[in-house]
């Protein structure tokens, strides 16, 4: 499975194209509190593709690591602390 994901991710990155399914969002209402019959007690939640989120997180982490490793961030730029 990991090899298949790697192939899909690499093809997406090399072609600069993200699969349409990864862009699609499902908006659903999530109950917050109070009366369930009151529409004001719900908030919209966007559900996006898990595969797209995984690629996005991987790219973000790799970019941050490259910037840090190559000392391309200065003190005035935000760096996330790694725990």
Molecular structure report:
The protein has helices at residues 2-15, 20-23, 50-69; strands spanning 26-31, 42-47. The protein is of the alpha+beta class and 83 residues long. The protein has one domain (2-68). The longest helix is centred in the C-terminal third of the chain and has 20 residues, at 50-69. The protein is flat and about 55 Å long.
Key attributes of the depicted protein:
83 residues; 14% strand; two-stranded antiparallel sheet; alpha+beta; 2 strands; 3 helices
Tally of alpha and pi helices: 3
Structural class: alpha+beta
Q: How are strands sequenced across the largest beta sheet? A: 1-2
Could you give the count of β-strands?
2
How big a fraction of the residues is strand? Answer: 5-15%
Could you list the spans in which at least 5 consecutive residues all have pLDDT below 50? none
């Amino acid at each position: 499975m990991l090899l298949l994901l790697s192939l899909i991710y690499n093809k997406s990155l090399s072609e600069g194209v993200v699969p349409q399914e990864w862009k699609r969002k499902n908006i659903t209402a999530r109950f917050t509190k109070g009366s369930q019959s009151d529409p004001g007690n719900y908030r919209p939640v966007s559900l996006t593709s898990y595969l797209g989120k995984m690629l996005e997180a991987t790219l973000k982490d790799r970019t941050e690591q490259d910037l840090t490793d190559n000392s391309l961030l200065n003190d005035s730029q935000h760096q996330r602390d790694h725990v």
